[in-house]
Design goal:
heterodimer, A: about 120 residues, seven-stranded mixed sheet, four-stranded antiparallel sheet, B: mainly beta, five-stranded antiparallel sheet, 11 strands, globular
Chain lengths: ~120, ~110
């Protein structure tokens, strides 16, 4: 089945630094990828929709200047948390839809997730 | 936008009993309804899904029903086992794959 790979799985950084997380679709092309954030014991909250070749679409309340998204190719989207602070510590997960034959299957595949800890 | 409500937030059952989790959604444009199982620190794993043109789907001990008119869908797990213990999320997705998740249900299956 389709695979989405996310890297790194864990990252610890100092407050004020930037962290980049990569999301790759390994055996399909993803024109759209999604970035979610999950705080402990909470649900997955959509942060933004990453669109290949164009600007990302951010959900209400998500700072686009803080969470930079780049989707430069059909298989790679990156999320950069800039000037990270302890409150940004969370589990970040990407997903991508495998279009399948004829498009529109809708099934989402999730990356392994990246646990960010900001000291 | 889409709003998904999930109930109950916690569910405890005895091994061998059935478990039912219910979700409602608001956007009639949603056409794909996956259910995910998430173990601590791991990514959500798709366990079953249903599309808007289907009313029911079953895969061994797991089944999902969808009432498109009422905008609700349910997960049914029969003959529960301790390894079924996890957090379960429902989601409503549109054609593009954009998903809105429920708040999750923590299922505990007691041996």
């Amino acid at each position: 089945g389709a695979v989405v790979s996310q890297h790194p799985s864990r990252v610890i950084c100092k407050s004020g630094t930037s962290v980049k997380i990569e999301c790759r679709s390994l055996d399909f092309q993803a024109t759209t990828m999604f970035w979610y954030r999950q705080f402990p014991k909470q649900s997955l909250m959509l942060m933004a929709t990453s669109n290949e070749g164009s600007k990302a679409t951010y959900e209400q309340g998500v700072e686009k200047d803080k969470f930079l998204i780049n989707h430069a190719s059909l298989t790679l989207s990156t999320l950069t948390v800039t000037s990270a602070h302890p409150e940004d510590s969370s589990f970040y997960i990407c997903s991508a839809r495998d279009p399948g034959p004829g498009g529109g299957t809708g099934e989402l595949f999730f990356g392994e997730g990246s646990r960010l800890t900001v000291l | 936008g889409e709003n998904v409500e999930q109930h109950p937030s916690t569910l405890s059952v005895q091994e061998g009993d059935s478990a039912v989790i219910k979700c409602t959604y608001s956007d009639s444009a949603s056409n794909y309804f996956p259910w995910y199982k998430q173990e601590l620190g791991k990514r959500p794993q798709l366990i079953i899904d249903i599309r808007s043109n289907v009313g029911e789907k079953k895969d061994q001990r797991i089944a999902v029903t969808l009432n498109k008119t009422a905008k609700h869908f349910s997960l049914h797990i029969t003959e529960t086992q301790p390894e079924d213990s996890a957090v379960y999320f429902c989601a409503a997705s549109n054609y593009a794959g954009k998903s809105t998740f429920g708040d999750g249900t923590t299922l505990t299956v007691k041996p």
